[in-house]
Design a protein that fits this description.
This protein is mostly helical. The protein has helices at residues 6-31, 35-45, 49-70, 90-106, 111-119, 123-140, 150-154, 156-159, 172-177, 182-201, 204-207, 210-232, 244-249, 251-254, 276-287, 297-315, 327-346, 353-358, 364-389, 395-405, and strands spanning 2-3, 87-88, 164-165, 234-237, 240-243. α6 (123-140) packs parallel to α17 (327-346).
């Protein structure tokens, strides 16, 4: 996908993101693909079909990335965000993932689900969106008239030491081979993808679930599509093909003026779908007067998912306005949104951004984040269950009992009885 001008290449880049996001919005709404719902089904009903759909999406994306990277058709080394960075920020991955998992449970869905619900008429999700937007924006960008961010003020000094500087990139293939080994990346990617596919398809019930099959395959393919488009858009200049980010870095030597130059080159790097940081970018875009220089792949994908969900809600006649039931419902969603804003930025992504996009690169930090999100979500659901079952029970009793149920504490520490 080689273009004669930067403007043409950038337009294709953005339109590609928008169309893929539109498909994502339609399919996720149609099939009720929901990562929080998947964990809920597993924890509360013992139904693993939707968790299998999530793992199918991971398998499809990972298998595609593995094969296309081996064929030199993708760049998943220099990405935005830097999934395979040699600095393993395990503290941020685990704590951020835990916060995000708790937050998405309280707020009735992850970042992607928030967009889906907005498209379906849910006004509660607009509030959740706004809170995530402000927090995630100022986690990365300085406060007005300051050089401080929420991350630098609240987290940097104590959480950044919880990291390890590796001698290789943090993807499994590189760590096994002790460096950049195409064969190790290929083998590790194939083994993990096939293991996931075996787990997914060993269930006859899942194999008969058309919506879950459709969701897993299409969501995984959309993630792969994002990687492919962002890795292969180039501009022909001075008899050389430049990627968008390389063109940006060499702008002064290639371009005659700054017309059409984006505000940042990092957001032009190879990438796929993630939603917490882009929700924050949406706030910055609105705050700064809809400056076209602030448009990004992620920002455009936010609008694409909302529109796709809106279209399906009209087609299926499922569009309906929904508001908070009471003050408690408002407060719970507000707390959840705050936790998702902080957690999603700390962990470098959400259930889609790290749980599928990041994991498709086999980055260790992404895997840590995925595990932490699932754990935080499952634990919160268990606590909510026991608080509902025993209205007078304290939080500690519900927490200890939940951890016993999850086999993380001995049975002797159980404080509450199950039904």
């Amino acid at each position: 996908m080689n273009f004669e001008s930067f403007a043409e290449a950038l337009s294709f880049f953005y339109w590609g993101a928008f169309i893929l996001a539109l498909i994502l919005g339609v399919i996720v709404n149609k099939t009720n693909f929901c990562t929080m719902g998947a964990v809920s089904d597993m924890v509360n009903m013992g139904d693993n079909n939707r968790i299998r759909a999530w793992f199918l999406a991971i398998a499809v994306a990972t298998l595609g990335v593995t094969l296309l990277e081996y064929l030199s058709m993708l760049d998943v080394n220099s990405t935005f965000p830097p999934y395979r960075a040699s600095q393993l920020i395990y503290g941020e991955n685990l704590i951020g993932g835990l916060l995000f998992g708790i937050g998405m449970t309280l707020a009735s869905g992850c970042g992607n689900k928030t967009l889906i619900r907005i498209g379906g008429g849910n006004l509660k999700s607009i509030i959740v969106f706004a809170v995530i937007a402000v927090i995630s924006y100022y986690m990365i960008n300085p406060f007005p008239g300051s050089d401080k961010t929420l991350f630098s003020v609240l987290f940097y000094d104590w959480i950044r030491p919880l990291s390890i500087n590796l001698t290789t990139q943090q993807d499994i293939g590189a760590m096994i081979a002790g460096g950049a080994s195409a064969t190790a990346k290929l083998v590790s990617g194939l083994v993990i993808s096939l293991a996931l596919l075996v787990f997914v398809f060993k269930s006859a019930d899942f194999r008969g679930s058309k919506d879950n099959l459709l969701a897993g395959i299409v969501v995984g393919a959309v993630i792969l599509g994002g990687w492919y488009i962002s890795s292969n858009v180039t501009i022909e200049a001075e008899d050389e093909a430049y990627t968008l980010s390389d063109y940006y870095d060499n702008w002064a030597m290639i371009s005659d003026d700054n017309e059409g130059k984006p505000a940042s080159g990092r957001t032009l790097s190879s990438q796929s779908f993630t939603f917490i940081n882009p929700i924050g970018q949406t706030y910055g875009y609105i705050k700064d007067g809809f400056d076209s220089a602030l448009l990004t792949f992620g920002l455009i994908s936010v609008f694409g998912v909302i529109l796709g969900s809106f279209i399906w809600s009209l087609v299926s006649r499922s569009f309906r306005i929904e508001w908070f039931v009471d003050a408690k419902d408002f407060t719970t969603h507000l707390i959840g949104a705050v936790l998702m804003g902080f957690g999603g930025v700390l962990a470098l992504g959400c259930t889609i951004g790290q749980g599928i996009t990041g994991v498709s690169t086999l980055a260790l930090g992404s895997i840590f984040t995925l595990v932490a999100i699932i754990f935080g979500c499952a634990l919160t659901m268990k606590i909510q269950y026991y608080k509902m079952l025993h209205e007078d029970a304290g939080f500690v009793a519900a927490l200890l009992t939940s951890l016993v149920d999850m086999k993380l504490l001995p049975a002797s520490m159980r404080k509450l009885e199950d039904m």
